[in-house]
Hints:
The protein has helices spanning 6-20, 184-188, 192-195; strands at residues 22-28, 34-41, 45-47, 52-58, 67-78, 89-102, 117-119, 134-136, 151-155, 165-177, 234-246, 252-260, 284-286, 300-308, 313-321, 326-332, 338-342, 344-346, 359-362, 364-365, 373-374, 379-387, 392-395, 398-404. It has three helices and 24 strands.
Amino acid sequence: MARCSYYGCLLSLVILLLVFNLSYSQGPLENGNHIKSATFLSPKFVLGPGSVENRNYYNIDFPKGHIALKSFNAEVIDEAGNPIPLHETYLHHWVVARYYHRRVASATEKSHPSDDIFAGNSGVCQGSVLRQYFGLGSETRKTATHVPDPYGIEIGNPTKIPAGYEERWMLNVHAIDSRGVEDRLGCIECKCDLYNVAVDENGKPLRPDYKGGLNCCYDRTQCRLIPGFEGVERTLYLRYTVKWVDWDSSIIPVKIFIFDVTDTGKRINGSTEVSPESGCQIEYEVKPCNGSGVGVDGCIDMKRTSLTMPTGGYVIYGVAHQHIGGTGSTLYGQDERVICSSIPTYGEGKEAGNEAGYIVGMSTCYPKPGSVKIAEGENLILESKYSRTQMHTGVMGLFYILVADQISNSMPTKLVNFD
């Protein structure tokens, strides 16, 4: 039988403890329902200098049963559990999505991925685009995700799971190892020339005007290194902590909406994927100021789009997602009232969570219950601002809100529709 060294066994024990850590808080909700917490590790991924991880992991560890999710937090760590700073491994994004998987009747029967049913959020992008339940990027360590009482994100309701299926979860991790790269900002903004790619991950040629973005830094691509640089590969994990409570009648469910400032508003021929002509584009390019370095706009790129809210309700939580160069994002109502503004925090040091020059947090909105409401059919305006002191590729301007139909179980929603 193979035997491990003392340090090897100790390291394995540390990882097992991280994976199977399950703790329960002592702080009860108003109905006596205790918050539960579990911390898990993603499947391991190995990165060397300049390399990229961007893949989906299905059937990840996740709490089971009819529950209300209260928060989801994550960070990249090494085998010893040490947090990895962004200037070594840049966390472009992670997203968690829910789906239904067909149960097999016997050990000989096989289930196929095509049998899976995607269970996304409430919108508003086309098809499966941006339909995750949770998702952040470099800002993940200092961005609050807690859903306040008495609200929760309902999952595991047996009456809503299709017959013959079970609820599962998928995790996507997009991480870029920037150790020893020739141009760190260019690599994490996925500039195509630094990755020496001319086709996307499906082999489709890139548009001539496409300078950088997700189509150039897909899984297993390699960013250009400083000549002669050598570095070791590292085994990494996304460590994620989920908090929840058991579902009961005192909890008010919230709906998840994700808006994209690149949304064209068009939905052509039932398109369900990203295309230049239809729907949410996910990313865009910010061009630099004129030669003098100062533009009439104060060297700020301001992008806006109009969105229609499919259902009404009360805003419980809001936060934006931006990349380096971002200066803030605001969601406005039809009457130009501010629904939520979310501003980035930039790091000032070297340690994980405070990396200089990187967005390490986004401010969040927790409106007083009942104070911010959106009507069904209301036209919203999403605004995203970036600095134009230099060019930025593959930037994002997303906005995530949680909406409840009612403030409390005793108060029904009464909203005026916008025609």
